[in-house]
Structure formats: structure tokens, C-alpha cells
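pasting for the record
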Amino acid sequence: MTAVVEVRDLSVGFATDYGEVEAVDEVSFEVREGEVLGLVGESGSGKSVTATAILRLIRKPGRLTQGSIMLGGRDLCRLNEDELQQIRGTEIALISQTPRTALNPLLTVGQQVARMFVLHAGLTKAESRKRAIEMLALVGIPEPERRARQYAHQFSGGMCQRVMIAMALATRPRLLIADEPTTGLDVSTAARILDLLRELGRETGASILLITHDLGVVATTCHRVAVMHAGQVVEVAPVRALFRHPAHPYTRALVRSIPRVDREITMEPIPGAVPSLLNAPAGCRYADRCPWVEERCRRQKPAMTEIAPEHFVACFAVEDGRAAPV
């Protein structure tokens, strides 16, 4: 399957008074045509920074230190700001995790959706308004003509998120980045938003990079999963393979922490803490929390190894057979 975006060896650092924080360390993954790829991990694992880097929106004191982001044969890391402006919103779009604050309180929601067509499709104001109403209807907002004249404060959190989805999909982007799109929503509203994303992804052909800390969301929404820990991708697998046969010790700990209703299971907290990314460890960043750690884990960073079709893991214990996937 063709990749829409290929991220290779991407690293992002942030300068601080105490030294540089390596928030993203040589991250590699791809998002394929028509798929939903989940990027999952604990808070602070580098998921949102990775998404911001793909959009080339890292601001000082942060900077891209190495790597490439390939989109349609172009390396986004080598484009200037004018070229990037042509890509943001048209080929890559972002759904914020805080839709109410992301919307402009001084413009009606219809004006904000219509603006996407004016800026990126060159339509007239009348044409853009018509298309905006169509998009609001598409994302399930009732009475779209009337609601288009209202402001963000007149919408619920779930409806604000639908407006953000309408804006993101207005120009039919190739890649949609959804950064924790269900944050702050109740369970039923969150489920409807995820169903809507899947449905609209199929209808528009957009690939989706879904950033979340919730493995339950991953299980019901994604085709493949990339697991991040402390700024590194440690496992990439099809969603069923990841849940049935988690390989990396961190992935196993995440899976064991999920409550289950289909069978009795004791939830286990993940031991230890995420290491400081100031002067980050040279080797595996999970070493201090790992039951299979050995000396080389602390000195050397394990490479991604394919242990089954489409299933990759960065772990010496799995690689040499000391810890077979469960």
C-alpha cells in the first residue's frame, strides 16, 4: 500500500536553561493511503510534538535536528514557509484537541468554515458560504444554515469538534492529523466523533494519523499502531497483532493496564517513571522500567526488527528470544 507520508529518523530538540531536551528521538513511521494509524503512548511521550513537527510548526526554543518528512515526493523539512503554507490546510490538516479555543470567538462558525474555501480553493464568498453549509451538514450538525450563523460559544464541545472536522476536511486533504480529538468529551459524544472520523475518512479518501493515549480508542478505530515511549517509537504493528501479541515490554504494560469486561484480569500499573529527556539515556529509554534489561540496553539503542509480517519492535530481549511476544 502506498504511503501518504513517510517520517524517517525525525528528531526534535528544545533548548532550555539546563540543556537540550530531546523530545523526539529518531522517530520513523508511515501513514498509508486510506488507513488510520494510531500514535499512542503516555502523556509526555512526544506524540503531539511529532504531529507538530509533521506540520513544520515547531517554534523556538524547539527545532528539528534531523530527519525527513516525505509527502508526495517532497521533503517537508526542506521547504520554505511559503511552500509550507500551500500544504497546510490543503494536503495536511489538523484537528485540535481543544476545539472551542481553536475556533475564533468573533466569527460565526459558517464564516470560519467558508474561509477555508476562500483561502485554499479560491472560491467566491457566496460559493464558499454554500460549501460551508454543505460541510456542516456532512459532519452531522442539524439545521446547518441556521447554525452557520452562530458562534462557537453557542455550540457544545462535541459540536465544536464537528466544526473543526468540517474545516479540516473542507479541502479534502491527503492526511488528517487528529490530536486527541475526544479530549473533554463525554463517552457517547467521543464515540460519535470517532465514528464520524472513520466514516468521513472513507468517504473523502483521507488518511488519518490519530494521536491518543487511549488504547480503547486505538482498538476500535485504527488499522495499525505506532507505540511511543519517551520520544521513541518502540513498536509498530497491525492493531489486532498489537493487542493479541504485544512484544515490547512497554506495550505489554500498556495492554495490561486496560480494564477488561470480557474476562477477569488484574490491572497492573506501569512500574517506574519516564526518564528525564535532559541528557536522555544513550540506549533504550525503557531500560530502568524493564524486567528484561541487560547492560547493552543501557549503552545501545535497539533497532527496529520485524518479528512477524508488518510487526516491528525495538527490543534486544525480543530480538534474541529472551522475551517472546505473548
